[in-house]
UniProtKB/TrEMBL annotation:
Pfam families: Peptidase_C1. The keyword Secreted does not apply. Belongs to the peptidase C1 family. Keywords: Signal. PANTHER family: CYSTEINE PROTEASE FAMILY C1-RELATED. The lineage of its organism: Eukaryota, Fungi, Dikarya, Ascomycota, Pezizomycotina. GO terms for biological process: proteolysis. One of its GO terms (molecular function) is cysteine-type peptidase activity. This is D14614d7-7edf-49d7-b461-6d902ee31df1. Residues 76-300 form the Peptidase C1A papain C-terminal domain. Residues 1-19 form the signal peptide.
Amino acid sequence: MRSSTATWLAFVLAAGAAANPLLRPRRVPWPDPVPASSIGPIDWSSVHAPIYSPPSSQGSPGKTFSAIKAATSSTPPTVVDWRNRSGLNYITTPQDQGVCDSCWAFAVTALIESMVRVEHGVWSKRSEADVHDGVGAACESVGNAEDTLAWVAGQGAEFISSNSTPPGIADWPCDPYQATEHPYEHCSDRSGRATRIPFYQALGAVDDQKKWLDQYGPLVATFILYSDFDSWKPTAQSDVYKWDGVSQTTGNHLALIVGYDDEKQAWIMKNSWGKSWGENGFVHFAYGNANIDEWTKYGLTNVNPDPWTRRRHQSGSMLQSGNGDTHRNFELLVGNPNATGFTHISRDGTSAKWSKVSTIQSNGLLGQPAIIGTSYNRDFHAVAVNKDQTVQLWAYSQSGMNWSQISTIDGKAIDGFPGLTQGDGSQLIMVVKHADGTLNEWQQRPNSTVWTLSNYPIASNIAQSGPALVQSNVDLDLYNAQGTSRGNLYTVAVRSDGQLQLFWRSGQDTAEWSAGEVFGSGVPLDTPPVMIQDYFGTANETSVGGFQLVVAVNGSVQHWQRANDDISLAPPVEGAQGKWRLAETTGTGVKHVWALVQGSFNQKMHMITEGTDGGVSYWEWDGSWAVVQKLPALDDSSWTTTEPG
């Protein structure tokens, strides 16, 4: 908190506050922190297995996730710092709560978004306002970690007798933070943009807290706020904060513990007073100082990211969903024999077992559908082209657990394989080749089933399109105060001369497409390219990842990469190969590549190919590509059937 008043306001986690955000909380004293002594030692055998595993650039492809319980005898290292674990940063940029007493919302938000990065690899900036305003808090309202985390998890008092979906916490552009008095106003598709969490883990013993920090991730801590903390800076004499013994308290404060340093005898803390405070927004906070170890700390594990977070990191016939015990199932669509529709197959994120979910009948389907997770209640959407040159859109309802056909584009002579994404404006965007050799963009607005041809033609003399459409974060102003900034779109198509070409436009819907770099040669004129934006080497939530592209050439998979470190300052230009490089050529007997995903498994990439024999293979990249499994034919008796979830 940052206030000098002796009397505090506490938000009330009651049904009225959640239902009516304009309701102002009553005046009550600061909620008493939970004594650490009241929390017994953790029974580690009952705690969900730690999901974090250090990434490996040369690991063993095919190694599956193992849900092993945390060891009871492990000794934490001397220093743990999630700003640099195995050379990677897992902590988002320090934020500034401004004049509001909203440290509790900032600490909880920082915990959740950090755990998404720790457990799933992706950056996922969450909205402090979505929590603060969602519970009905005023600018001067104070709170605590346990009630706030319970509210986000849907386990607060107002949810006890309700069947409502847990609120979770939405992304920052869905509800930009404002340090002012204002009503709770969020994006219309918030439900599908909210990361969900389980109930929190309370930790009282310092040894348990250090073990948690080492094996699981950051913790929220509460401490007494003294006035000397306001202007603290590291000095030549000491880079550890300790209360000076004379400064007066102004209440309590909550912040995120991102590690510890036994050599300095200090916790490593991320504050919420901006990057100019302390040591670039962080502080080494002395053990036992200001009651920090007298009060309970709180952690999370097994968070469930939303599809909005994952969308630029997956493309084609497979995606990683939030389904399954560890929220990392793969959902794969495979065309049925004789073009009679497709079958939905799921790979369990813990056991790595594949099973059938359902079969959808549709005559004349060509190739494989492209599937995405959407912000429409986390439902899946899929598009595919038919032999009659129409495009069909299906949706899978997460609540109803069933597929249904939504709309059809007919009479437009579309014969290419589609690329599908959800734009930053929440609309569906599809780029696909038409029979006249043009590449065109189609859009479907939220709450509509009508496709509109827009920004066309992108290009002419195109031989084939594919699931190579990326809604990137290039030129996206994540912290735009109105939440209206849009990232650039990029796609790659096969030209009639057998080369690949990149095309791009700015994120505004009326922007025109520009022709970009040309690379590769000898690409079959009937095979689709597949492209995603990766998160390799990204320093924080605003960093721009590179492009990863795979395509079948001469029976092998060509894996192309483009570093995007300067793509805003030096946009792709037509003609030259630019920054594209051929990273690897692998495999034999490959006819088409249909999917590429960078998921939650130690920064690995995952790929689906179709062989010249018609078989479907699942691949993993962990420094190089390798086939992990050739899936049985759809009519094979070894398949089991399950429901996702």
